[in-house]
Structure formats: C-alpha cells, structure tokens
C-alpha cells in the first residue's frame, strides 16, 4: 500500500474489490472493533442513525496524514463493516459519520470530525486541543453556538485507534479467585506509586512495567495486601481546561476508550505495545499472589456536555450513546457531574460495556472491577433500580458474574445515594462506614450504636437482602478526599493549587486538625495526630467486611491539605519513598494489623455475628461491654455521649466452616475503643484466678506490645482517644499434672458472662 488517496469516491461506482493498491471486501458485523488475523483486518462499528460511515486509515510513520478514506458499504443490524485483506498491524484508524446535523433532536453528525472507535484496543497519540476538535465554532460569541456546525477537519489533531494482534503467551496464568472475605484491597495509582521509587529504573517509573518491577511487588507482598485496585487505566483524555492551566488529569476519570489501556502508562511504546505491557504486569502480580482490580468509568466519557469536544460516541450516534433530556435533546442528562451520562438503557452502549468487561477478564486477566458512580449505570429511565438492565445483564453473564464486583453506590442525580441498595453478588464502597468511624474518633456526640454496626460488617445495610459482611468495602480514606495524615492535620480543604480558588472539593470531611491547621512543631499535637491515624487503621483492619487501604496511608502520606488532587500529577499526589522514623513506625504498625487480620479468622468472618450459641454449653459469638465490664444496656446504646465500647469476639463460638466443611475456631479477643479525650478505667472481664488478657495492640503507643499480660476483673486505664486489642490467655496454673485444663476456655467465658449478667 503505497498511494495516499481516499477511495470513497471510487466506491460510489464500485462497492467492493480492488482500488489500485488496496482491496475492500464486505466483511462481517461481529466482532465490533478492528479485528486482525493473518488474512487481514475486519472493521465493524455501530451507528443507528448515521446515513454513511467512512473508515479512515493512517500509516504508522505518518499518523496525522489520512492515507485512505473508505466508505463502509455494508450494514447489518445497524453495524457498518468491511474487511481489508493483507492489512498489517500497526495501522492507525478512525471513522467519519454522515447524517443529520440537528442538535435540537439529538443528531450531531459531522463528517468533518474524525471519531475514535469505541472498541479500539489501543490508542496512539495525544489530543491537540485545536478548535477543530469541537463540532461547533467554539470562539463564536453566540451562547447558542453549539447549534452551528464547524466544518474544519479534526483528523490531524485527534488520537487514533491502532490495529493490534491480541495473541499473548500467558504461561498458564489464571485468575486467583481469592475469597472476598480474605481480601485486603490497596487502592493505588500506577504512576503515583512508582514515579519516585529510587530502585525502579527511571525509564520504567510511572508505567505498567514499573508496577511489575520486583521491588514494587516485594513491597506490596511485604505489606500484606492481597489485591491492588488500580485507579483508571482505560485510556483517558487530558482535559482542555487543565492543559490550558498547565495541569494534568492525574486520576483519570475522563475515559475515552473502554477497551484500551492508557497509553501514557506504557514504557514499551504506544503503537499497541501498551497492551502486552499491561498483560506482563498482570501476570507478574498474579505470580506474586496479588489480584488486579480495575477502577472503571463507564458512566460518562470525555466528550462532556453540549459545549464539549467531539471525540467518538457523540459523533457516531449521539442519541444512542448518551442520555439526553427527553424534551430538549440538545442537552444531556448529567447524573455524573461531568456533563454527560452513558445511555445504559440502550442495548448498544450496554453491549459496549459488557464487551469491555469480558475483554478485561478474558484477554487481560483482571480479577474484578470497582464501578465509578455505579448508581448512574443502574438507572432505568429515571431512577436507580436493582432490576436495571445493566445489573440483570451482569448477573446472567457466566464470566463477569464470577469476578469481584464493587460498586461506588452513588451518583449526583436524585435518589442516587444507594449504599446498601445493590443486589447479591455486589460489594459496595461503604460510605456510611467511613462517616461513622470518622465521627466516632473525631469525638462527635453520636454515641456508639451506629459504630457497632460498622465494626461488625454493617448487617443493617446488607443482611436482609441476603448479603454477607464481604458486601461492605470498608474504607476511611480514598483517592477522593484527605489522606489519613491530612484528615488529622486540617480542618479545612486547601485546594488552591488546583486553580479554582479553593472552590472545588468536599467541604464536609469529619476531619480534625488536633489544634493547629497544617504542619506544627508542637510534639503533643504531633503525637496526637499519629495516634489518630493508628486508631483509624486499627479500626479498619479489625472490622468485619473487606478493608481498603488508600495508597500511602500506611506510612502517612500528605497532600498538604488538598482533598481533591485530581489534577496534581506531581509530588503532591505521588508516593514518597523517603520516610522519617515516624513514617517507618506507622508502616510497621500497618503491616502488623494486616498480619493480625490475616492470621485470625474471627476478624474476617464470612457470616454476620448472631449472638446465638452454637452448642448448648457454648457461648454466643459476640458480646458488647461498657467500661464497667458489664454488658451494654439499652441506656448505654441510646446515650449519644457514650464514647467507650468493648466487644468480645468469641472465636470458639463461630458458626464458620472451611472449604471441606470443618468447623473453624479461633482465639477469644477483647477489643476496646475509647473515643473520649480523657483516659477511662475499663474493667477487664473474666475469672480473676484463672483469666489473663494478653495485650496485642495499643494505639496509644507506636510500639507493638510484647507479651504484656493483665489480670481479669481489674481496672485497666485506657489512654485518651485510643484502641486496644487483647487475646484471652490461660495461666499455666490452670492445668492438672497431666496438662488438662481445670477450667476450659468456654467455661471461663461462660463464668465471665455470668458475672457480667449479674
């Protein structure tokens, strides 16, 4: 193929066959996208309302110069298609769609604009924000300028799809299928984690290959997490308004292509090499026992509202791909806060999302998904519904239904806050957990009743619908908001670096600066801040449900008070590997917590506590205590000033079984949380002459306790704003000469219970 000329005009006389140095055959309508084989490439693209679709091809060496424009003469079931024999991988491509330009009825067909295939599996190039990328004259002063068609060619300024060979040697790799109840999630950013690591080669920093580097994998394994949740890696767009300010979209919640890995995270190249580099990363993480969960953004695209650019779906079929205002279709329904909402009520956008999900599981081997603003996807014509087409389709899919499915259960539309509202199979980011735990440790007068639900897996949200504690993804911080360190260093957000005069970001954070806004040299405040971080970490990892740790909280990462660092692709957001002694101690504390959780089944149960006896002579599996060492009363539960709470977790009384049906037993633990700003005396329960409590955790100190034993039925002084974990330990004197227990653990706790009830 050597000649550069469009052949669409020739096709008006002859539909198929040889056109000088290129051939065009009818091809097939499925699969959608550009599908390469040794025989050639099949191109297939959906458009319901277009009157003509042109395929534009670009050579590898000149990706901004259109080499061929081919009219797709075949349409089957609203899919336009053709086959080009002998076409090799590496060719760039896009489409142009003809049809009605009438924004007031939702039609925006403009053949002057190159369009990215929604099914492309690789993207080459970066959008140059030339006015031609917009479908209307953006510099026109008319407020209704979006109704006018712009006729300039956007082809030279737009990214292109790449024809790739998808074959890959996985060397026997399969999904890990770590049980959800045993999962510990690490929410992280591909670039942010690796960009500053001194032992990652400079050319690999910030890339998929950098994340797969042994030094990074060793770090994750040593920390103890079981899964990495990658912030968006679908190819996304650098927003024009950020580029104008000299900023970048760091988070990536601005998707352009649902099947293509983000090209800027590839060290190997952007002509399709990023696909294999991503697969290499997944394979390396799997070999280390680490699952890969993707944070996916299917609810909107980078094309924005009626003033946004024309990149792909908007020009291919605006009415089909997006939710439009019913009586005023020049405007978009915006349930996402980004300008548009993908139309999941229409079969073809739904198919695109489902095909994308299957592709990432079957071809890229990812282990699960976290769905950004999942309520927007689950909306029917208006409201969020469990029986939406999207949820029904996922539940019947034999592939997607078997991986980890995590919803961010809210959007910005009416009725969008759906925590607890998703069906069986789904886990959810539990925003109520975050708020309740933050409020308790901040000292808000809310009592401990709601906290008790959150500590035990939020049965009030999930149990009645047949779900289990693993439905609750517990988190205290995430990418969106303060880091854990900043949560206790700032009362107010400090987002001036974003260039929006500090108007952006959430203002209601349940944060507390511990007395001084920002950095301080006051040693008492410094120690208090460290203790508050330890409290939150200990609560997170010892709660029932699935803990999610935000990148860097394990050592105390700061964003200097910025709680909306979406555009800070710099040291503000990146992981800092140069730690102080205090940060090293915090990291060691976090590792200890994760290890404690992993080694004791009672902290990651599959079923909710029930308080019932498993056998006639046994105890229930949980017991709540007030500081006197007695069982919590109704008055205690309703007291909004109650700020201390004890809970006995009876590992001997669990109604839990392993994969072979054998009863699982664990130790008996006592966990005490003191949210008071002063110390509190707490009577340790038990039989004094036999019972000893071994202190395993004390957040009042940065040191991990070593073999400290305390007598039962004696007062233990809880430090202000601290958390403690004890394990029941028997005295050696509680044994006969033959080594048998005089008082068994169960009998001991039964006596303990009798004392409490008396």
Count of individual beta strands: 29
Strand content: 15-25%
Give the CA-CA distance, first to last residue. Answer: 92 Å
Mean pLDDT: 92
> What class would the helix/strand composition place it in?
alpha/beta
How does this structure look, described?
The protein is of the alpha/beta class. It contains 18 helices and 29 strands. An 8-stranded parallel barrel has the order 14-15-16-17-18-19-20-21. A hairpin with a 4-residue loop joins strand 10 (101-102) and strand 11 (107-108). Mean pLDDT is 92; it is low at 731-735.
Features:
single chain, 758 residues, alpha/beta, eight-stranded parallel beta barrel, six-stranded antiparallel β-sheet, 18 helices, 19% strand
What is the secondary structure topology, with strand pairs?
Blueprint: H1 8-11, E1 17-19, E2 22-24, E3 33-37, E4 40-46, E5 52-59, E6 62-71, E7 74-76, E8 79-85, E9 92-98, E10 101-102, E11 107-108, E12 123-124, E13 160-162, E14 185-188, H2 190-194, H3 208-211, H4 214-223, E15 227-230, H5 240-244, H6 273-287, E16 291-296, H7 313-321, H8 347-362, E17 368-371, H9 374-377, H10 389-396, E18 404-407, E19 426-429, H11 431-442, H12 449-455, H13 459-462, E20 472-474, H14 484-487, H15 523-542, E21 546-550, H16 581-599, E22 622-625, H17 634-638, E23 644-650, E24 668-674, E25 680-683, E26 691-698, E27 708-711, E28 715-718, E29 722-730, H18 745-757
Parallel strand pairs: 14-15, 14-21, 15-16, 16-17, 17-18, 18-19, 19-20, 20-21
Antiparallel strand pairs: 1-2, 3-4, 4-8, 5-6, 5-9, 7-8, 9-13, 10-11, 12-13, 22-23, 23-24, 24-29, 25-28, 26-27, 26-29
Helix pairs in contact: 11-12, 15-16
């Amino acid at each position: 193929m050597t000649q550069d000329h469009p052949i669409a005009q020739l096709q008006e006389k002859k539909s198929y066959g040889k056109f000088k140095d290129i051939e065009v055959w009818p091809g097939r309508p499925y699969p959608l996208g550009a599908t390469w084989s040794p025989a050639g490439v099949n191109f297939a693209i959906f458009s319901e309302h277009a009157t003509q679709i042109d395929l534009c091809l670009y050579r590898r060496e000149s990706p901004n110069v259109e080499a061929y424009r081919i009219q797709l003469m075949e349409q089957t079931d609203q899919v336009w298609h053709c086959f080009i024999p002998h076409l090799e991988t590496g060719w760039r491509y896009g489409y142009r769609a003809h049809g009605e330009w009438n924004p007031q009825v939702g039609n925006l067909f403009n053949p002057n604009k190159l369009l990215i295939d929604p099914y492309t599996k690789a993207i080459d190039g970066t959008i140059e924000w030339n006015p031609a990328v917009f479908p209307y004259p953006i510099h026109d002063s008319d407020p209704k300028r979006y109704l006018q068609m712009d006729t300039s060619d956007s082809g030279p300024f737009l990214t292109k799809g790449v024809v790739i060979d998808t074959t890959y040697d996985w060397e026997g790799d399969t999904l890990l299928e770590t049980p959800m109840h045993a999962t510990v999630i690490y929410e992280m950013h591909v670039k942010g984690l690796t960009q500053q690591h001194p032992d990652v080669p400079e050319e690999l920093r910030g890339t998929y290959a950098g994340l797969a580097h042994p030094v990074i994998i060793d770090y994750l394994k040593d920390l103890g997490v079981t899964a990495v949740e990658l912030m968006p890696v679908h190819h996304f767009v650098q927003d024009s308004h950020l580029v104008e300010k000299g900023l970048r979209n760091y988070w990536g919640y601005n998707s352009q292509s649902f099947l293509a890995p983000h090209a800027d995270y590839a060290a190997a190249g952007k002509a399709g090499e990023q696909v294999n580099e991503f697969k290499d990363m997944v394979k390396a993480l799997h070999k280390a026992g680490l699952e890969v969960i993707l944070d996916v953004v299917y609810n909107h695209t980078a094309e924005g509202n009626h003033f946004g650019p024309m990149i792909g779906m908007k020009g291919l079929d605006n009415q089909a791909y997006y939710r439009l205002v019913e009586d005023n279709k020049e405007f978009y329904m915006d349930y996402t806060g980004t300008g548009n909402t993908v139309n999941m009520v229409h079969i073809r956008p739904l198919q695109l999302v489902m095909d994308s999900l299957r592709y990432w599981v079957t071809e890229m081997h990812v282990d699960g998904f976290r769905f950004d603003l999942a309520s927007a996807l689950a909306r029917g014509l208006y409201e969020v519904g469990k029986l939406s087409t999207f949820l029904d389709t996922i539940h019947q899919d034999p592939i997607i239904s078997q991986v980890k499915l995590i919803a961010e259960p809210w959007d910005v539309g009416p009725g969008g806050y759906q925590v607890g509202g998703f069906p069986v199979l789904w886990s959810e980011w539990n925003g109520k957990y975050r708020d309740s735990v933050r409020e308790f440790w901040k000292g808000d007068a809310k009592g401990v009743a709601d906290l008790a639900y959150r500590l035990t897996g939020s049965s009030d949200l999930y149990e009645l619908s047949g779900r289990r504690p693993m439905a609750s993804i517990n988190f205290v911080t995430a990418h969106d908001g303060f880091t854990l360190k900043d949560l206790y260093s700032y009362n107010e957000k400090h987002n001036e670096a974003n260039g929006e005069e500090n108007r952006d970001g959430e203002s209601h954070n349940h944060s507390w600066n511990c007395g001084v806004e920002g950095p301080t040299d006051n040693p008492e405040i410094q120690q208090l801040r460290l203790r508050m971080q330890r409290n939150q970490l200990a609560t997170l990892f010892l709660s029932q449900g699935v803990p999610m740790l935000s990148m860097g909280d394990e050592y105390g990462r700061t964003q200097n008070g910025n709680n909306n660092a979406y555009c800070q692709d710099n040291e503000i957001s990146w992981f800092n590997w140069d730690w102080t002694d205090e940060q090293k101690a915090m990291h060691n504390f976090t590792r200890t917590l994760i290890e404690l959780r992993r080694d004791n089944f009672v902290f990651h149960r599959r079923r909710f506590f029930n308080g019932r006896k498993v056998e006639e002579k046994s105890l229930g599996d949980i017991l709540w205590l007030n500081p006197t060492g007695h069982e919590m009363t109704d008055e205690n539960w309703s007291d909004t000033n109650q700020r201390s709470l004890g809970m006995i977790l009876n590992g001997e009384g669990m109604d839990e079984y392993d994969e072979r049906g054998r009863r699982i037993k664990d130790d008996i633990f006592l966990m005490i949380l003191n949210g008071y700003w002063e110390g509190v005396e707490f009577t340790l329960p038990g039989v004094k002459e036999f019972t000893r409590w071994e202190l395993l955790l004390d957040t009042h100190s940065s040191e991990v306790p070593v073999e400290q034993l305390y007598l039962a039925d004696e007062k233990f002084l809880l430090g202000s704003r601290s958390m403690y974990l004890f394990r029941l330990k028997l005295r050696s004197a509680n044994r006969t000469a033959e080594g048998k227990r005089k008082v068994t653990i169960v009998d001991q706790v039964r006596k303990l219970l009798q004392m409490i009830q008396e």
